[in-house]
Amino acid sequence: MIVVNRFRVPHTQQQQFRDDLQAARATLAARPGHLHSRIGRNADDPELWVLTTEWESVGAYRRSLSAYDVKLTAVPVLSRAIDEPSAYEVVEPGTDLNISRMRSTDPRSLG
């Protein structure tokens, strides 16, 4: 699975944000199931940053977010992300895709 988190960061906050984002990336990279991650900054709009991470599975990513060190280091940074869907399934030739439907976050709907 691929997770794409985009951030809008004012110029005056960029150095601190970069340091915080690098620490968040390192913390996530230490979690089981993490495959790869990258930090980027938009070439045309330098206030737009991105953190992409790749995971063995949705479960590995979700479990990583519940780890204590991730809650302390990465979650505060990730909470600054632009509010948009961020988790993507990998699409390769011949693979089955998830059913295209909205998913509820209400635990009562898991029935």
From TrEMBL:
Protein name: Antibiotic biosynthesis monooxygenase
Domain ABM residues, every copy: 1-91
Statement: the UniProt record of this protein carries the keyword tRNA-binding: no
Organism in which the protein naturally occurs: Nocardioides agariphilus
GO molecular function (one): monooxygenase activity
Lineage: Bacteria, Bacillati, Actinomycetota, Actinomycetes, Propionibacteriales
Pfam families for the chain: ABM
Protein keywords: Monooxygenase, Oxidoreductase
InterPro entries in the cross-refs: ABM_dom, Dimeric_a/b-barrel
